[in-house]
Amino acid sequence: MIECLIVNPILLAADPGASSPLGPFVLLVPLLGIWYFLLIRPQSQQRKKLKELLGSLKTGDRVVTTGGIYGMIVGFKDGTVQLQIASQVKVDVARSAITGIATEEAEDASKQDSGAKGKK
Hints:
- By secondary structure, this protein is of the alpha+beta class.
- Helices cover about 50% and strands about 25% of the residues.
- The chain folds into 2 domains: about 20-55; about 60-120, Roll (SH3 type barrels), CATH 2.30.30.
- It has 3 helices and 5 strands, in the order H-H-E-E-E-E-E-H.
- Strand 3 (about 80-85) and strand 4 form a beta hairpin.
């Protein structure tokens, strides 16, 4: 008797015919929404911002590259930018390798870091 009270509700709850065919989609829609707002949208906004930055570059801007090189733009070619990284030192880098406009604080911090590494 006790088995019937415990087993019957479990078997009835597992009845495959009682579920809705839209059940999996009800869970999928919110997951796709969360995925969009947490991953896709921020990345597309960041890409748009970088594209605007690369389009607005001009000679004389202080920039930083993906490799961490700070330099001043001295010229443009087809898909490259010529940076002056020191006196009499010019480097050609891909325009897409530029990650941002360098600020004074970031340059000072990188100089202090490189100075500390050289003293060790």
